[in-house]
């Protein structure tokens, strides 16, 4: 390899996959989710929406790009807002299928918050569907996991109303 723009490519690509694209395979990178007492006595739903998702489909190793929306109802513990974005990013940064990613996010937050009352919806484009194969540029995939009180229709609809799935990305 004599071209100086290509010389660094093997190392650059290896570093990118290990440290960035698949960085979430390293358990040391799992975010420490700081929690607080719910001193404010805020007892309604909290929604962190439009969280950017960059992941990689495990079948084709092509990008999955979209948005995650998370909701929880505190039973005494509150989590720092940015930690929800960090948890999404950690589980996204590995070879994934969207269904598993959605469930992993909910399970992690249920553990951190000590409650089942957590939900996550992801709307994402899979480049393996958009840019190759069937090459359908418009389609996106929606997955959802509803824990605890979110299995109740009224609570679920409140969450879905807050996020109104019209996100363009
Ligand atoms: N359920 C699920 N399927 C996914 C996800 N990401 C990609 N896929 C699908 O995984 C499937 C792999 O199917 P294969 O038939 O082995 O692969 P392929 O021959 O390249 O299929 P085409 O994409 O239809 O050309 C494809 O249908 C992808 O659309 C995901 O997150 N969840
Ligand atoms: Zn794929």
UniProtKB/TrEMBL annotation:
Reactions the enzyme catalyzes: GTP + H2O = 7,8-dihydroneopterin 3'-triphosphate + formate + H(+)
Pathway this chain belongs to: Cofactor biosynthesis; 7,8-dihydroneopterin triphosphate biosynthesis; 7,8-dihydroneopterin triphosphate from GTP: step 1/1
InterPro entries linked to this entry: GTP-CH-I_C/QueF, GTP-CH-I_N, GTP_CycHdrlase_I, GTP_CycHdrlase_I_CS, GTP_CycHdrlase_I_dom
Domain GTP cyclohydrolase I as annotated: residue spans: 3-163
Top EC group: hydrolase
Top-rank taxon, per record: Bacteria
EC number: 3.5.4.16
GO molecular function, one term: GTP binding
Keywords noted in UniProt: Aminoacyl-tRNA synthetase, Hydrolase, Ligase, One-carbon metabolism
GO biological process: one-carbon metabolic process; tetrahydrobiopterin biosynthetic process; tetrahydrofolate biosynthetic process
GO CC term (a single one): cytoplasm
Similarity annotation: Belongs to the GTP cyclohydrolase I family.
Protein name per Swiss-Prot or TrEMBL: GTP cyclohydrolase I
